[in-house]
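Sanity check

After download, print the first record. It should look like this:
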Amino acid sequence: MAILLGVDTGGTYTDAVLIRDETEVMASAKALTTRHDLAIGVGNAVSAVLTQSGVAPQDIAMASLSTTLATNALVEGQGGRVALIYVGFRARDLEAHGLSEALRGDPCLLLTGGHDHAGAEVAALDETALTAFLEIHKKDVSGFAVASQFATRNPAHELRVAELVTQITGRPVSASHSLSAKLNGPKRALTALLNARLIGMIDRLIGRAEAQLRTLCIDAPMMVVRGDGALMSSAQARQRPIETILSGPAASLVGARWLTGAETALVSDIGGTTTDIALLRDGRPAIDPAGAQVGPYRTMVEAVAMRTHGLGGDSELHFVSEGLTAGVTLGPKRLLPVSLLAKEAPEVVLRALDAQLRRNIPGEHDGRFVRAVPGQETEGLSARELALLDRIGDATWPLGDVLQNRVEQGALARLVARGLVQMAGVTPSDASHVAGHLTAWDGSAARKALALFGRKRGGSGMRFCPDSDALAAIIIDRLTYQTSLAFLETAFAEEDPAFGLPPETLARHVLMQRGLSGHRGVVRIDAGLNLPVVGLGASAATYYPAVGKVLGTNVILPEHAHVANAIGAVVGRVIMRESGSITVPREGTFRAHLTDGPQDFPDAQSALSLLETALTESARARAHAAGAAQIECQVTRDIRTAGVEGREVFVEAELTVEASGRPRVAVG
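Expected structure tokens:
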């Protein structure tokens, strides 16, 4: 019997689940996510699931972690200060794919060197300039990224740069060719830069999480979920943290498949911050061919094709006034629910809410609170931001008591974006407490916060909605509407052939919206989803039945849907892919581009055979290092030819080897 532990760190909760023999959920538990140190929440959730199940820690054969840390860090602009070494490119290339923006003032060296598309050296590597740059910055950055022109065709210069970085600085270095085998130097450079920036954060998280498990007497190997839903070892995650972006959403798809056995369905995971929707086709999630998009960055990381919307149980509620009408909208930012903050700091929150309700004139910041997140780095903050952070200190404050002028609102927004301060306000979670769907936190605080929000006045001068119960229904209806649009956008994006308009336009089109309500006039219009929806997340059972009615589709709410990500974290497979290419630099020469440099052959078959052997050995070795057992390899060949004077001429070939297997576990 093998007992497996899965853990998922979400925006609000950290989930833990125990699975026996990969077939049965034994127990699950939740603990609040501790944003200042995610490992504390991991330890709390694991302790709870062990207590609930009665399982001895020594009986756990494997642990696996799904984390939002890398995704959130990129979205929020967090991470270490790093340096980019850009070999063989021009200064204007920095503007491509957002490289200059991504650098955010971090040092960059444009270095002579690089290769051409056939792998031949264009210019010698300028090691003198490189050495001088490394001596200057070896102590003021946490790591280095290197991207060389056509490094996927010949990585020699990247390998030499990495060697010198290690010798001179001792800092970690991310080489672009080791993260992607695809062409597009600026995009590979961006991927390497972001990877270098994340190394310290992921290393600390994994180290702290493993220490928490050892404290609980769990000595099992730890795996980490990649953005494509596959597993890798914790050691590999430390070296390639960029591959953990979209880890949580990918785990949800794996968990949905395991829980329901669904072959084709739209899978949606609603959390506190986002709603993540993807198509499950033939039992497998589709991989985004353009690379994972996170916030403003399009990377070269293989990840599930998923549409992420800033819509969740903790989405910020906005008041919208247009003319004489007023309404609300949700997201995309997350707030700490007032009901949750009131449970943690009841005296401050309830006293402030009562005082605000006694005032005849509503205040601009009524129902809003702030608190600092302890233990975060403050480098790079302005004097105004540091002063505001110092004023907040260790306490919880009504927002109006902290801001001294409007200029400080910008400083506060930057502190929130950096993850240094949390803002609390009205969210759908508070509305659900008022409506009676949730009872976990302080329902009385939620009711008072909604009453304050309802006192806002629209263009007519009338209060928007003084009744808290009525406002709760309005908020939940708004969540239903925006969630329905999110499903329709995803569905239209997957239509083949496409309809010729952006998915966002099609979802809101008058014909689509009239069709959802079954329009019957001179024209009859019926519309809806033609696939079932699998709803995941703690609040899916609360919100998704209404969404299913709007879209006219069946909603599947599997048992254990509230911990699907944690389940997906532990039931996935180890999958490692290696890719390489063969080009024809001149007639009669077939060049295989290998990791240790290009090698020429007189015929295509010899080149293909050697490249396939090299890729298979590399993929199998990486899968074995990740802890895979019974490894199977699958080879995909894409050979491109052209007709020239009545004969087929070899132009280029791309080979991909996929090595996969379930993780090795110690059976007790």
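If your output differs, re-run the checksum step. Summary of this record's structure: The radius of gyration is 27 Å.
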